[in-house]
Automatic annotation (TrEMBL):
Segments forming domain DUF218: 46-165
Any coiled-coil regions, as ranges: none
Protein name: YdcF family protein
GO cellular component: plasma membrane
Length: 202
């Protein structure tokens, strides 16, 4: 009986760790706040792509911070209006970037996407038309893996670098302590499984 007292917590901890690691691929581990020469994964990209959904404001601010720290010269905001009577998410994100001092010429918007698959598909033309060959993809931590799969599926000639937002109002290191955290993680895993089983795009 005593051994189970140690085995069960260890198994649960391993499951939580595996889910966290899998859902949040991060290509910038070990990088500083700004790009650095001589390190393959820490160099400047052509553009930053931020998809709306969840904590859109936190995602937007993370993308703006990356741009202002020199990780790219351009930023793409993608997302339709959550409230169809108002402006699109992408337009709202653009306005937030302008208010933060980002030049209008550096901002691209895609306003039609209501799903992750559509984010990936509908930004393809922007990326191709502007010769953005490597991009930094920004979204919430729980959403990063599925977004990566969608973007790589629709943009086979573009290098997608993952930069998950590890802390927002929906997600944190302690996600496993709340029912919502498990709901988000479980939902992502199910959608990813469907994708690999030949279902619809993630």
């Amino acid at each position: 009986m005593i051994k189970w007292f140690f085995i069960v917590p260890a198994v649960v901890a391993a499951i939580i760790g595996a889910i966290s690691f899998y859902l949040q691929p991060n290509d910038f581990i070990g990088c500083g706040d700004k790009p650095a020469t001589g390190t393959a994964q820490c160099v400047k990209a052509d553009a930053i792509v931020v998809v709306s959904g969840g904590d859109t404001i936190a995602r937007t601010d993370e993308g703006i911070k990356l741009l202002q720290n020199g990780w790219a010269n351009s930023i793409v905001f993608s997302g339709a209006a959550q409230d169809k009577s108002g402006p699109s998410n992408a337009a709202t994100m653009r306005q937030r970037a302008l208010s933060a001092g980002v030049p209008a010429a550096s901002i691209y918007v895609e306003e039609r996407s209501a799903t992750t698959a559509e984010n990936a598909l509908n930004t393809s033309a922007i990326l191709a038309n502007n010769n953005f060959n490597n991009v930094i993809l920004v979204t919430s931590g729980y959403h990063q893996r599925r977004s990566e799969l969608a973007f790589k599926k629709e943009n086979t000639k573009i290098t997608v670098l993952n930069h998950p937002l590890l802390q927002d109002k929906d997600w944190s290191f302690w996600w496993w302590l709340s029912p919502r955290g498990w709901w988000l993680a479980g939902g992502e895993l199910v959608k990813i499984a469907i994708f690999y089983l030949g279902g619809a795009s993630p």
